[in-house]
Amino acid sequence: MLRRLYNWMMTLAGGRHAETALAVVSFAEASFFPIPPDIMLAPMVLKRPENAWRFALVCSVASVIGGFLGYFIGYSLGPVGLAILKFFGHSEGLEAYRQWFGQWGFFVILAKGVTPIPYKITTIAAGLAHFSLMQFFVASAITRTARFMLVAWLCKRFGPEVTELIEKRIYLVGTVVIAIIVIGFVAMKFLAKGH
């Protein structure tokens, strides 16, 4: 099924309405769709590099808006949100999500927004935890824009070879980004205790 969805998205990426399809997929991926929009973004940038930043912006804006749907699912439709998270392999209970966001909050969204971890997990969990909507928006805007601009820049700068490199090294890059964010968070906590 995932292979068929992937092939369908690649067909959309080369079609007449690719930009609209990119926006729809980016929106849906932030709340329930299983495949990330990078799959469409990369070939679209490779085909039309002059539109790289516009495509990345479309991806970013649609993803942030879609994140609000994920947040709403978690916040207002708790059992549905928990069922979606369980489907994607995250069966922690409501209290676990509240503790997770209570301790790490903003940094959870920043970290997970740039990694291969499905963003819908973060958006729904944030809603379940009743995390601050303003902080959710700010963190989502930062992390999603950074991620899609980076993908667009890499494809524009290095061409077709980069897509294979991104696929091979994405877990390493994601791990490094998370490590930097966690180190920064721990340093801030340490400094705050010192004052």
How would you sum up this structure, described in words?
- The protein is mostly helical and 195 residues long.
- The chain has one domain.
- The protein is 81% helix and 0% strand.
- The chain has helices at 2-13, 18-29, 38-47, 52-76, 78-87, 94-103, 106-114, 119-128, 133-158, 161-194.
- The mean pLDDT is 80.
Instruction: Report mean pLDDT, rounded to a whole number.
Output: 80
Cα end-to-end separation: 54 Å
Rg from Cα:
17 Å
SSE class = mainly alpha
**Percentage of residues in helical conformation:** over 70%
Total helices: the number is 10
In short:
With 195 residues, the chain is an all-alpha fold.
Explain the layout of strands and helices:
Blueprint: H1 2-13, H2 18-29, H3 38-47, H4 52-76, H5 78-87, H6 94-103, H7 106-114, H8 119-128, H9 133-158, H10 161-194
Helix pairs in contact: 1-3, 2-4, 3-4, 3-9, 4-5, 4-8, 4-9, 5-8, 7-8, 7-9, 7-10, 9-10
